[in-house]
Each structure stands twice: as structure tokens, then as C-alpha cells.
UniProtKB/TrEMBL annotation:
<dbReference type="InterPro" id="IPR001972">
    <property type="entry name" value="Stomatin_HflK_fam"/>
</dbReference>
<protein>
    <recommendedName>
        <fullName>Band 7 domain-containing protein</fullName>
    </recommendedName>
</protein>
<dbReference type="InterPro" id="IPR032435">
    <property type="entry name" value="STML2-like_C"/>
</dbReference>
<dbReference type="InterPro" id="IPR036013">
    <property type="entry name" value="Band_7/SPFH_dom_sf"/>
</dbReference>
<dbReference type="InterPro" id="IPR050710">
    <property type="entry name" value="Band7/mec-2_domain"/>
</dbReference>
<comment type="similarity">
    <text>Belongs to the band 7/mec-2 family.</text>
</comment>
<dbReference type="Pfam" id="PF01145">
    <property type="entry name" value="Band_7"/>
</dbReference>
<dbReference type="Pfam" id="PF16200">
    <property type="entry name" value="Band_7_C"/>
</dbReference>
<dbReference type="InterPro" id="IPR001107">
    <property type="entry name" value="Band_7"/>
</dbReference>
<feature type="domain" description="Band 7">
    <location>
        <begin position="35"/>
        <end position="193"/>
    </location>
</feature>
<dbReference type="GO" id="GO:0005739">
    <property type="term" value="C:mitochondrion"/>
</dbReference>
<dbReference type="GO" id="GO:0016020">
    <property type="term" value="C:membrane"/>
</dbReference>
<dbReference type="GO" id="GO:0007005">
    <property type="term" value="P:mitochondrion organization"/>
</dbReference>
<keyword id="KW-0496">Mitochondrion</keyword>
Length: 336
């Protein structure tokens, strides 16, 4: 049982080691044999040595070299290649350990430097990318790693190009492919995200309630304003109606008084007034007992002619006083 488990672990370790070695090994073409006349493929550069010393770089197409003395030592591919950067651990500014892997895109720009500047350019670039990435991750906090992922990639590319210029290799792009956090940190971040979402939901709900209350209050305000304006308009209309009614009554009363005054000046006018007063006297007596059971009567209530005569005497007296006042008013107006 223990042997089987141990052998499985050993196999897994060996497989991972071989996979890492395959990723680290530079994929290059086989060195061609010197056949004097050579055809170099497009996007390749062949480095030729003469007597063990650098001689020339063969360009794509037809090339002729000397036999025996010239040897094709390196074959450089000028195409852009992608290299997997293995998983590695990095510590952020706030002491959080991250495990991440990335993809590095390279291109050979100088075949001479790529051949003689470093033993294995791709392996050197991979190691440089790992160390640069750890250095850049250590400058920022965990939250900024997720927010500034693009700027982090640009910073790593600039740092790699600054160091790899002497190797004849240019880093085109650096992309972080996967990023893993410790389980506890991931749970804490998940809790933080849930709390933030609950906070936003509560804020949105409270804002909705506030807007609803504002709308209700605004509706009540407008309703009260409209009701007050309607009540004011109703009172104005009612007052105008009452004023017009009073004016109409006053005009009718004035007209009736004028007609009565004209009638009094005619023949038998006083007889008509006496008859009208007698009719009103009788009508008043007919309404005495309709509103209350208590009735107060004058001593000579049965003497209708006496009551009429008394009313006419009062009328004549008031007429004389009114006439005197009008004459005085006219005299004053003339004097002024």
C-alpha cells in the first residue's frame, strides 16, 4: 500500500518535472549540414562560424558557404513565440501570498546577440519574468493586483525589455493567465464582496424608500395647494355672487323706491300707501303665532285706521326731515 502510494507520488513528481523541462527547453530547428549551397527558410537566421569564430548570418534565400571551414552553429527563429511561465508564489505589499502563472510572448530581434549573449535565452527570459513579476507584485497591495492587472503586465514587460536588450530578444507581451489565493483569504474576500453587495442593496432600498416618501409628500403638497386654490376660487366666486346679488337687490330696491316716490306724487298716492300699510299690518298679524306661542299685542290692535294714520304720520315726518337735509346739502354744495 505504502509502496504504491510512494510510487504514484514519484511518478507525479517526475511528470511535473518533465513538463517543466519541456516548457523550459528552447524549441529550435535541427542544425543543417553544410552542403555549400544552402536555402535558408523565411523568418529564420543561420549563424555561421569559420574555424570556430563567428563569420556571418545567412539571410533567407539562396546562400553559398565554404565547405569544411564553415559550420552552421545556431539557427534562430525570428517568429514570435509564446512561453509558459510556470506557477510561482509572490507576496503582495499587504503580506498575501499569491500563486500565479503567465504567458510570455518573445521575438528574436538580433540573431548574433541571441546566439552569443546568453546560453539559453528563453530560459533566461523565463527566470527574469518570474523574478520581475515577484518584484512588481511586492510593490502593490492585493486589491490593486486585480484592479491594475493591465498596468502590472506593462510594468513587467518594460522591466524584461530593459534587461533582455543585451540578449537580442524583445518581450512583446506578458499576460497573467491564472491567479490563486489562499483559501482563507478567498473566503474573506467572498465575505467582503457579499457584505458590499448587501450594503449596496440596503442603500438602494433606502434611496427607493426616500424617493417614494418624497413623491408622496410632494403629491400631498400639490393636493393641498390645489384644494386651497379651489377653496379660494370658490369663496371668491361665492363672494362675487353675493355681492352681485346684493347689488341687484339694492338696485331693485332703489328702483322700487323711485317708482313709489313717483307714485306718491300722483293723485290718490297717499290712499295707495295707506292701503299698502293696511295690507302689511294684517299680514303681520296673520304671522304672529306661527313661530312662537307667546304673542305681544298693542292695546289698540283692533283699530286698523289708527295704525295706518300713525304710520303715515311717521312717513310724512321722515319725508320732511329728508327733504330738509337734501336742501342743506345742496346749499352747502353751492356755497363751496
Amino acid at each position: 500500500m505504502l509502496r504504491s502510494v510512494t510510487s504514484r507520488r514519484a511518478v507525479n513528481i517526475l511528470q511535473s518535472t518533465l513538463k517543466y523541462a519541456e516548457q523550459s527547453i528552447r524549441h529550435r530547428s535541427r542544425l543543417p549540414v553544410n552542403t555549400v549551397i544552402l536555402f535558408v527558410p523565411q523568418q529564420e537566421a543561420w549563424v555561421v562560424e569559420r574555424f570556430g569564430k563567428f563569420s556571418q548570418i545567412l539571410e533567407p534565400g539562396l546562400n553559398v558557404i565554404l565547405p569544411i571551414v564553415d559550420t552552421i552553429k545556431y539557427v534562430q527563429s525570428l517568429k514570435e513565440i509564446a512561453i509558459d511561465v510556470p506557477h510561482q508564489a509572490a507576496i503582495t505589499l499587504d503580506n498575501v501570498t499569491l500563486t500565479m502563472d503567465a504567458v510570455l510572448y518573445l521575438k528574436v530581434v538580433d540573431a548574433y546577440k541571441a546566439s552569443y549573449g546568453v546560453e539559453d535565452p528563453e530560459y533566461a527570459i523565463t527566470q527574469l519574468a518570474q523574478t520581475t513579476m515577484r518584484s512588481e507584485i511586492g510593490k502593490i497591495s492585493l486589491d490593486k493586483v486585480f484592479r491594475e492587472r493591465e498596468s502590472l503586465n506593462i510594468a513587467i514587460v518594460d522591466a524584461i525589455n530593459h534587461a533582455s536588450n543585451a540578449w537580442g530578444i524583445k518581450c512583446m507581451r506578458y499576460e497573467i493567465r491564472d491567479m490563486k489565493l489562499p483559501a482563507k483569504v478567498q473566503e474573506a474576500m467572498q465575505t467582503q464582496v457579499e457584505a458590499e453587495r448587501k450594503k449596496r442593496a440596503a442603500i438602494l432600498e433606502s434611496e427607493g424608500i426616500r424617493e417614494a416618501d418624497i413623491n408622496v409628500a410632494e403629491g400631498k403638497k400639490r393636493s393641498r395647494i390645489l384644494n386651497s386654490e379651489a377653496h379660494r376660487a370658490e369663496q371668491i366666486n361665492q363672494a362675487q355672487g353675493e355681492a352681485e346679488a346684493m347689488l341687484a337687490k339694492a338696485q331693485a330696491r332703489a328702483t322700487s323706491i323711485e317708482i313709489i316716490s313717483q307714485a306718491l306724487g300722483k293723485e290718490n298716492g297717499l290712499n295707495a300707501v295707506s292701503m299698502n300699510i293696511a295690507e302689511q299690518y294684517v299680514k303681520a298679524f296673520s304671522n304672529l303665532a306661527k313661530e312662537t306661542n307667546t304673542v305681544i299685542l298693542p292695546a289698540n290692535s283692533g283699530d286698523v285706521p289708527a295704525m295706518v294714520t300713525q304710520a303715515l304720520t311717521m312717513y310724512k315726518t321722515l319725508a320732511k326731515d329728508t327733504k330738509k337735509q337734501l336742501e342743506i346739502t345742496e346749499y352747502n354744495d353751492k356755497q363751496s
